[in-house]
């Protein structure tokens, strides 16, 4: 299903709310969170839960669900929708067989589902839990027309660049602060005999994160908001500037490991942290840590570290963030109980301890983060002078969240032919005009 909506119906997020999103998961406190699992017996209840997580993330989330099952007696079946969350979920809804609960990464999708009448608002008890443990900004991100539908179970810092410390040391490459230093570091790594950068872009979504980080630093927060809401065209000079920077990087075959258009994101992580490493650097969000831990023998904080996405033209520290919101699609007591469980700190703490996870829940004790690196990730998100939620996740799903179409496909085409800057901008504008409905 494609989404054609007017801008005002798309994402009614106040700029102040986006600026003020905080990672409440960095609260302090010396006691573990009290259980928020419902006390009622759910024996005999079967729930179907879906999300986009697979691999290590799926395994960790299934441990969260297993604890819910242990404490309530409910049976929970998990299905991964992979990269096609919007398409698959809407197909299930149209067929009359949606999951009881889904966890989705796109505020735009949440809002369209709510506006179509496909979501169940949070119960009064769950809403009270959310208000207790979440900042108002995260509540606003899960609300539509005065009703709250989403529990932002997972947050993410998508402005982290991960590197193999041994590769960098061998190459004599320093941790960069600026974009020019970043390119220079990649060159040093490549000169040492290992490609500087591995990219996994087979379905396109990692490329949207590249664009957003560069655009936020070159165009600024105000234009970022305007482009997010399609108030300026994708042919705007600010977009051309960002695409030009990407073009120079992606067209430099001396720095980038070949095959990125066919490589998965997970495989790009393995390329950098496997034995032997086949590249020195991989860009993506804090969830890279989970892939490193599950797919390689590298140790976070020793073999594998990250630095903040570099400053461009003197830009202040900035973070593009994301998250995954739990939503309820079936009106039954089991689904409502699971939503209540996911809203509390107990559920989030299970995954926090496993690594590769950052929680917006302020009931999660910072001491539960397993290492200095995960605390560094959280600190970077909290203290960023500029924060913006992932642009493509706020867009209509047909434009910003669907494999094989919209921004994903167009940027993947651009990655494979990075000289076509003007053509890429025009293609993005044409797709945005169709999918935003203006």
TrEMBL record:
Keywords: Signal, Transport. Pfam families: SBP_bac_8. It comes from the Bacteria. Residues 1-24 form the signal peptide. Belongs to the bacterial solute-binding protein 1 family. This is ABC transporter substrate-binding protein. It comes from Leifsonella bigeumensis.
């Amino acid at each position: 299903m494609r989404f054609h909506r007017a801008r005002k119906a798309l994402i009614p997020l106040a700029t102040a709310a986006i600026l003020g999103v905080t990672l409440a998961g960095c609260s302090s406190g010396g006691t573990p969170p009290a259980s928020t699992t419902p006390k009622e017996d759910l024996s005999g209840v079967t729930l179907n839960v879906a999300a986009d997580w697979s691999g290590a993330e799926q395994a960790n989330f299934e441990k969260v669900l297993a604890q819910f099952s242990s404490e309530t007696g409910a049976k929970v079946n998990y299905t991964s929708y992979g990269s096609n969350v919007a398409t698959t979920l809407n197909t299930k809804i149209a067929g009359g067989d949606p999951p009881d609960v889904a966890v989705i990464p796109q505020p735009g999708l949440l809002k369209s589902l709510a506006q179509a009448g496909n979501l169940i608002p949070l119960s009064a008890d769950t809403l009270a839990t959310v208000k207790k443990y979440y900042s108002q900004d995260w509540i606003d991100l899960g609300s539509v027309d005065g009703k709250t539908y989403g529990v932002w179970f997972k947050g993410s810092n998508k402005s982290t660049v991960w590197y193999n410390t041994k590769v960098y040391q061998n190459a004599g490459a320093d941790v960069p602060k600026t974009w020019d230093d970043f390119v220079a570091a990649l060159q040093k790594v490549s000169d040492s005999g290992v490609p500087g950068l591995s990219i996994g872009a087979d379905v396109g979504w990692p490329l949207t994160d590249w664009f957003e980080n560069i655009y936020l630093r070159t165009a600024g927060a105000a234009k970022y908001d305007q482009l997010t809401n399609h108030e300026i065209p994708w042919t705007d000079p600010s977009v051309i500037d960002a695409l030009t920077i990407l073009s120079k990087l992606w067209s430099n075959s001396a720095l980038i490991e070949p095959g990125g258009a066919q490589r998965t994101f997970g495989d790009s992580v393995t390329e950098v942290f496997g034995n032997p490493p086949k590249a020195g650097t991989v860009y993506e969000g804090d969830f890279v840590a989970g892939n490193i831990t599950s797919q390689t023998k590298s140790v976070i904080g020793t073999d594998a570290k990250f630095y903040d996405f570099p400053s461009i033209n003197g830009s202040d520290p900035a973070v593009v963030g994301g998250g995954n919101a739990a939503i309820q699609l079936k009106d039954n007591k089991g689904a409502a109980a699971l939503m209540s469980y996911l809203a509390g700190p107990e559920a989030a703490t299970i995954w926090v301890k496993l690594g590769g996870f950052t929680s917006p829940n302020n009931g999660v004790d910072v001491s539960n983060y397993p290492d200095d690196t995960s605390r560094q990730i959280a600190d970077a998100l909290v203290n960023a002078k500029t924060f913006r939620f992932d642009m493509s996740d706020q867009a209509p799903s047909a434009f910003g969240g669907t494999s094989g179409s919209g921004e994903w496909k167009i940027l993947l085409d651009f990655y494979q032919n990075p000289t076509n800057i003007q053509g890429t901008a025009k293609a993005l504008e044409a797709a945005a005009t169709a999918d935003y409905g203006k």
